[in-house]
Amino acid sequence: MGVRAYAQSAQWYDLVIEPLIKRLRMIGLAMFPPLKGMSVLDVGCGTGTHLRLYQEAGCRVFGIDLAPAMLSVAHRKLDGLVLGDGARMPFPDESFDLVTAMLMFHEMPLALRSPVLIDAGRVVKRSGRLLIIDYHPGLVRSPEGRLHRAIITTIENLASREHSSNYRSFMSNGGLVPLIIECGLSVDKERIVGGGTLGLYLLRPCIQT
């Protein structure tokens, strides 16, 4: 979904999409439980709902997004938000205890995915973690998986042509796992949920700069 498309969707995103992914957020939260004072950056922070969970837990929260309309909604909930490019973030090396990116990489053109994940690895502390959540490709056989895949496909087909094309590219290229390997990160924890349609990866920042 392009920046212009978000100008239309920002106002209804929390109402329509958030109920569908609330459980996913909570699974991610449990994989690396927040501690008071922990610094958290959400790349592609959207309307700020994910960051607000960490803020409520006493974390220092920061977000970056390319879509002004999404940030406008997020600013009603949070401070510490930046309009900017996830591949060239204006943060020093090793700034955050946790860097998150949820349902973002499938929206990007292939050429941008590695630069964004590499920069996320740059800004996380060596003792920190990255939590990456996105669609998981492959066959689904359970009723739950078929239902989730149908919902996902419907949402993606209703998006812009560019967004739908990026989603198909993401899935056909194997989703997150090849990207994680390419960027030199290692998996600390992995959860595949939604009947096999969604993947959550807690990563160690092994990138050497």
Structure in a nutshell:
With 209 residues, the chain is an alpha/beta fold. It is 44% helix and 23% strand.
Helix and strand layout, with pairings?
Layout: H1 3-16, H2 18-31, E1 39-43, H3 49-56, E2 60-65, H4 68-74, E3 81-83, E4 96-102, H5 110-123, E5 124-135, H6 143-158, H7 161-172, H8 176-182, E6 186-193, E7 198-204
Parallel strand pairs: 1-2, 1-4, 2-3, 4-5
Antiparallel strand pairs: 5-7, 6-7
Helix pairs in contact: 1-4
Strand order of the largest sheet: 3-2-1-4-5-7-6
| Number of alpha- plus pi-helical segments | 8
**Spans where pLDDT lies below 50 across 5 or more residues:** none
**Helix percentage:** 40-55%
Shape: globular
CA radius of gyration = 16 Å
> Element order, helices and strands?
HHEHEHEEHEHHHEE
Instruction: Please tell me the overall pLDDT.
Output: 89
CATH class: Alpha Beta
Give me the CATH architecture, please: 3-Layer(aba) Sandwich
CATH topology: Rossmann fold
Number of beta strands: 7
Give a description of the structure.
The protein has 209 residues and is α/β, with parallel strands linked by helices. The protein has one domain (3-204): Vaccinia Virus protein VP39 (Rossmann fold, 3-Layer(aba) Sandwich), CATH 3.40.50. The protein has helices at 3-16, 18-31, 49-56, 68-74, 110-123, 143-158, 161-172, 176-182, and strands spanning 39-43, 60-65, 81-83, 96-102, 124-135, 186-193, 198-204. A seven-stranded mixed sheet has the order 3-2-1-4-5-7-6, sandwiched between helices. Helix 3 links the parallel strand 1 (39-43) and strand 2. The longest helix has 16 residues, at 143-158. The two termini are 31 Å apart. The model has no long low-confidence stretch (mean pLDDT 89).
